[in-house]
Each structure stands twice: as structure tokens, then as C-alpha cells.
Amino acid sequence: MLKLIGRLLLFLPIFLGMMLVSYRVDPSGLFWGAGFERMVCDYMLAGNYVDGYQQLDGRELNKIYARECENAPQVLVNGSSRTLQIDSSFAPGKSFYNVSNVGADVYDFFNSYYIFEKEGKVPEIFVMGIDPWIFNDGEENIDKRSDSAMFARFLAETMGYESPQYTPENQMEKYKALLDPSYFQASVDTYFRNKDSSSQPEIVPPEDIYSRDDIIKSPDGSIVYDLNFRTRNQEIADGDALTAANNDLLRLSDFDRLDPYYTQLFEDFIVYLQSKGVEIIFFLPSYHHYLYWEAQDNIEKYHCLFEVEDYIKQMGAKYNIAVYGSYNPDAVGLTNRDFMDGLHMRYEALKKVLPVIE
Amino acid sequence: MLFNSVSFLIFFPVVVLGYFAIPEKFKNLWLLIASYYFYMSWQPVYALLILFSTVTTYYCAVFINKAKSKKQKKLFLASNIVVNIAILCYFKYFNFIVQSLLAVFPGLSIAPNNNLLAVVGISFYTFQSLGYSIDVYRGDVEKAKDFLTYALFVSFFPQLVAGPIERSKNLLPQLYKAHKFDYNRVSDGLVLMAWGFFKKLVISDGAALIVNAVYNDVTKFTGIQLIMATVLFAFQIYCDFSGYSDIAIGAANVIGFKLMRNFNHPYFSQNVTQFWRNWHISLSTWFMDYIYIPLGGSRKGKIRTYINLFITFIVSGLWHGASWNFVIWGAMNGAYNVIHRALFGKKEQRRRQRIKEGKPVPKTNPAVAVAKAVGTFILIDFTWVFFRANTLADAMYVFRNLFTDFSLLFTSGYFVQMMEKIGFYTNNGVAIFWCILFMFAVELWEGKSTLVERINKSKWYVRWAFYYTIILLIIFFGYFGQSQFIYFQF
Questions:
Q1: Which class in CATH covers the domain with range A72-175+207-353?
Q2: Per-residue pLDDT tens for A39-50?
Q3: Which residues of B are part of the catalytic machinery?
């Protein structure tokens, strides 16, 4: 029997090699995060601007960043693509990260904080970019890219809520992948695919970031929209806004009431953050006039848009939290020229509305 | 439980370690429990069917043994055959029979039973049981000494669900012997298992992805695509079934049992008769011993020989599956064998006689041998169309469209484009092709010995190069989706 075991041990190098390749390449990002995003994160942490945003899974990148960054950013900004342009110049002298996600939903709203907290990296200031739809329940408002399992863990582990979907993260589970030949095969494929430079992110020199026709990811997590989008003719931008206004406003149709579960969760979250000494700032990114007027004209259909703003202001008053911005562009002195389309303010407009964070 | 599953990866070492750790008198009981557990991981309730068949056959053999007259013996044998065949017919052929009857007599007030599930391995253990009772009746073998031993003979897990269909003469005596741990035997068994896994996981499962893409929707494909899928199916089924057999024989060897060889390089056969002597040997010889010879074999003149041969192949087709596709598949092979026997029977007989007498046999020119093997492969591959096609209509479509668009093959890029459409490149078709060549190279290297014998004769570095190659090929190109073995359905 010992002789057999001895001979079988001679095969060990094969399996150790297989495990090593799987661990290093890690095609599903079980140990290091997804390959492409991992590379982008490395570049960002080294202070680089990165091209290749279209291929990027922003949620995955944020998870990796939260894990890999050395210290908690002093200022953390969350929200959707409507807040993604907020960069570190809004908080000079402070470490800064914008954790906003394209298409962010209510899960992303809370997860974006949770990914830092579970790494023990609680920010000093948390700027909440609040889209009204995060209080709209219903599956259709959940983005397919958001992580519902992580949200369940946030509810259970951070907020102490009961969550039927909750399953604790099993660290051992992922190690099984190392013994799985399929994972090894995927690692080999990924390794050779990654050798192809066309599928790799590209570092962009700082002087080029505003002249590129690609979206650039900044080292602070914010993005610089592509030249075309930023410099588009105002008629086109307004045309886009008009089209958006003539359709159902994004995630605001079938929004009959502020979901009591989410408002309760939101309030509990504020209390929780304040108990940890986190300073909160609310930021309401404005809508283009055409969309806001559409909502005003169809108050029965879109009344929740206004109710969310009122609710946020009440919360601000109740918990002594600064509220900047408004869904109403007139309330913050914005004109049509401050928008790139119906939903996205120009960088300069953000500068007008959101003050420097001290 | 599938051999190619994580469960088996845990089950097998536990069974083996337990087997060598416990006292001799409990070993068969241990294997019996393990075998029933192995089977019950599919359909626990159908273990009752094996148990029922086991009890019936065991006691019939006891009664046959005790019977004083030939008539009584015959009666007990007949009753056992009826019971076993009735179970087989009900679970495997009931719906086929009903559907066939309804096709001819639509007014009949019978209906298929849609609740009937396929019973894994039913044809295998039924035939093994029948073989045993016939052997006891003929006096070729002593009845099993006790029920437990016989129950293990029927349910022995390595060969329970897909063979080899063991003969009582071979397996029963081994169940009475003590089996100690033997390094050489265990390592031989493991080598054979690894070879079986290579054939199954790399070639068969890889080829299956391409074959299924075509055969599950045949009307989307023509010409070279159908040919490629049909040729690949020949390798898929060979590697699936011979792979299973190798794993089964290897696993039994690890525990200390020697099962019969089930495949002997069938695609090197020089003619269809030889192919059937080398393919699924345990079933072919079963049909020979229990169907062909009792029908009269070749003892009753030429015409009866041909009829007997043809009937045997039709029954073999039906054994494989309850559908007309399998009947036609059996009939085609029957026809091939009858024609071959009519044309070359005497020559073949003379050649075999010379071999038997130890006289030299004229060597075939290698080029001619290759041509004959290729010709035999093509003939057999035609029959696989019926074996693989989902319906008779699909099979007919394949035949009608097999040789279309050939002129386009000379158009630049056409072949690659056609192969892309069947997923040849995305499913590692090129690697599969090289692995098939590697398998044939190994089979040539084996020569007349078995793989294990050949390896044991080799220098240590050749052995280890072989082991490493196999494991690396499995790791790099194996499919680990735990696909079923084709023969489980039979």
C-alpha cells in the first residue's frame, strides 16, 4: 500500500501545477477578481488613467479596488452614471474614490458601501448620489448586473435584517475550483487570450484624457466621458432629452409609492453610518428640463420623483445631513446647456451644484 | 453514480480501502452493499427490480439443481426466462410495442405508459442472470453457494450498469476466493481506468458535442458536415463504451477481480465478421452461446446458418434499444455478416483452422490491411447512422444528404466554414482528432497483448511518459460535465 501511495505521489506535480495555474490566472476572479478588471485596478492604484471602459465590469472593478486599496478612501461617492464624473478635485487634499456604477439600482446603492466596509475600510465622508428609483420596488428596477447575493449579505451582516436569500460567503467553496480541471482549462484559455494585447486595457497619458474618443477611467474611480459625448452639439443633447421625455422616464413609471422597506432601510443605514462616525452628504443629480417638465406635467404618473426629493430633504433635516443639488434643474440654476442628454449633467454643471468637500 | 463523477471519485477509494481493511468473511457483503448503493444513486426504487430478478433467478437455479428430471429442469429454466424477459419487456419494450401496434391498428384501446422510466442497465443484468440460469441448467457451472454471493454476482458495481456481461463461469468462482492487496494488480487496474477515462472524457465527450449539434437537428446540415458527425460518432461510441469497459475492468482489477475483455481494437478489423468478434465481445459471445447456437448455429446447413445469423443480429439490435432504428441497425449488421459469410466464409474458416493448428497464416500486405480496415470502418459507420439518429426520418435524411455539395469542397474556405458551423473548432475538434490518432497509435503499440501487458513490458521511462501523457491530456482536453455513458440506456 505504501508503495502505491509513493507512486501516486509522483503525480502530485501535475496536480500542483494545475492548481497553481488556476490560482494565478483565476479566470472567474475567485481569488484575485476578474482578470481584465484586476489589471485596470492595478493601473488605477498606480495612478494611471485607463482606456477600455466599454469592456469593463464596473461592479467587479469596485470590488477589487475595495479589496486592493491600501486604506479606506476618506471620501467615497456612490450613485449611478449620473454621478460618475465626480472626481477627486471635489475633495482636494483627501483620498477619494467614486464607487458609482452604470445603471446602479438599489442593490448597488448599498453594496457600494458594503464592499468597502467588509474590507474594514470605512470612509470618513460618504457622498450619496441618490437616484429616485432606488425607492421604487419591483424586479424591473433591478439591474441584471447588480449583485443580489451581496445585497442579502449586506442586509444580514451589516444591517442585521432578516434576508431569506442570505447565504454567508463560503471562503472554502472557491478553493474547490482549484481541484476542478474545467477551471484549469478556462485558466489556460484565459492566459492565452490575455496575451492578445487587443483585449487588454490601455494606460492613457494624463494629457490625452480629454482628447480621446473613448471613456477614460480615472485613478479615483470617476470617468471622463468620451470627447464626442462631452462636446456634442447642444441640439443633439436636447434632442436626446426630448426623446427620453417622450418615453417613460427611466425607472420612474409604475412608481406609485416610496417603498416602505427601502425607506426604512435607508433611514436605518443613515443611523448606522452616523453611529460609525461617517459624515454623510446627500447629492441629488438634476434632470434635464425636458424630463423634469414632463414629470411635472404628468404629476399623477411621476409624483414619486418629487416625493423622493422631499423625503431626502426631510432626512437631511432630521439627521443633520447636507443636501446638495435637486432633481429640478431650475432649483439649482442649471440651463439646458448644462446637460449632455436627459440624465447626465456636464462636469462643469456638477461643479456648479456640488461644492468642494472640506 | 457515474464513473466520471465526483461522487465516484470519493466512492471508489472508500470501497477499495474498506474492502482491503475488513476481514475476508465480510468482503462480499461489503461489495454487495457498495454495489446497491452505487445503483441506488440513480433510481433507488429500481434496485427492487434487481433484487427481484436476483431472488427469482437464484431460486430457479436452486430448483434446477434439485430437479430430478430433465422436464422439471426445463420447466424451472423456462419460468426463470419468462420472468426475466417479462420484466425486461415491460420496462424496456412496453411503450415501443404499444406504439408499434397503434401505428398498425390505430383503433386499439391501449396507450403507452408515460410514467415508465428507463431502468439503467436492465438489459445487462437481465442477460447476466439469464446466462447464469442457462449455465446451471446445462451443467456448465455449479449453482451459487449462497444467496449473498449470487446477489453480488448480479450487482457487482463495476460492471452492473454497462457490462461487460460476465459469465458465471468466470466471475462466480472469483467471488469465493480471497482477494489480498497486490500492488501490481492495483496499479494495472488504475492504469486501465485512466485509459478508460481518457477515451471517455477526452474523445467521446468531446466528439459528442459536435455529433449532438448535428444529429439533434440534422436537417440544418448537409454533405461534409453529416459525414464528419457520422465519422465522429463512430469514435464517440467506441470511446464511450470501450472507455466504460476499461474503467469497469480496471476498477474490478483494483479490487482483485478479472473481468472479461470487451473490446479488442475493433476498428482495426479486416472485415465485418472480425469486427463483431472484437466489438462488445461479452455481448457478442452471449448471443453466440445463448441464441445463435441454440438456434442451430452453423450445424443445419448454409441457409439456416444465414437465417440464424440474421436473427441473432436482429435480436441484438432490439437488445440495444426499443425502436425501429435499432432493428434496422441490427438487420444491416446481420446482412453484412451473412454476405461476408456467403462470400468469404470458407476462406475465413481455413484461415482460422490454420491459426488453431498453429500453422503460419499468409501475412496481409500492410496497404491492403489498411484498405480493408478502412472499408470495414465505412460499412460499420453506415450502420451507426441508424444507431445515433433520433428518428427513422432523421436517419433517412442523413443518408439522402450524406454525399451532397461535394464539388464545393474544392472551394477555398468551404471546408473550414462547414466545420465552424458544426462547432468543430470551438469544441476542440482539432485536439480530438489528434487524440484519436494517439489512441490508435497506442492500440497499434499494444499489438496482440493488452494495454497493461504492453505497458508492463516497457521501460520505466516509457511507462511514466505514458501515464503523464494520459493525465495531462485528460486535464487539458477532458470534458467534465458528467455526461452519461451511451450504453447506460440499454
A1: alpha beta
A2: 899 999 999 999
A3: 320
